[in-house]
Amino acid sequence: MEVEGKKVRNGSTVGPYAEGSTFVLECKSSGGRPAPEVTWWNGTKPLPVKTAVIPEGNGTYFVTSTARFVLSRWDLGGKVECRVRSNASSHPVHQWIKLDIHVRPASLNVRGPTTPVVAGEMVSLTCTVEGARPAANITWYNRSEVIGPQPLTAMDLMSDGTYRTASSLVLVASRYDHKGEFFCKGINEVLRKRLEAPLLQATTLEVLCEYFAFFLLK
């Protein structure tokens, strides 16, 4: 088997490749008589292939099967398999590789208070970025200003091979935060390298203030 013109071992993991990349695979078989059928499969689906059959001069054939397809996040962790089937054998020969694919973040969600808060209260805002590989980085903004220091983030590897990144911003609400927007930005290497916009979402705080009335007694 060859990937992008380079030989790879059976059962190995290849990559990483960014989603949207065009992937070229070659599977070669020699010494078969009659010429074997060489096919590529992505899971349970056959891939479109171009097949070249060359006689080797002694009644056997050299067969090359080339598959070309565009990688998506749905191929992450999947197996691509070459199958060689010959009338001379009752069992086909299988060789496969596993795909390591880097993907954009799939979603970003910000959660904050759903009711007004009182000035002086502790407020917690949570930002979660799902479906990224490699894991996304999170940055918090108060209006247009980067908040410092940034809160710590937690990264979890999910069952599909992508990462969930979560960050909680805890602050003391003040009257100056009323109607203020707190932004969360999520970005990973796939977005950076493709010069694509990061994921961005805001939440707005409503802050209630206590007012004191002073009376002049005569």
UniProtKB/TrEMBL annotation:
Give the residues annotated as coiled coil.
Answer: none
Tell me which GO cellular component terms the UniProt record holds: membrane
What this protein is called in its record is Neural cell adhesion molecule 1-A
Bilayer topology annotation: Single-pass membrane protein
For the keyword Cytoplasm, the answer is: no
Q: Which residues form the signal peptide?
A: none
Question: What organism is the protein native to?
Answer: Caerostris darwini
Gene3D superfamilies referenced in this protein's UniProt entry, alphabetically: Immunoglobulins (2.60.40.10)
Q: Which residues form the Ig-like domain?
A: 19-94, 105-196
UniProtKB keywords: Disulfide bond, Membrane
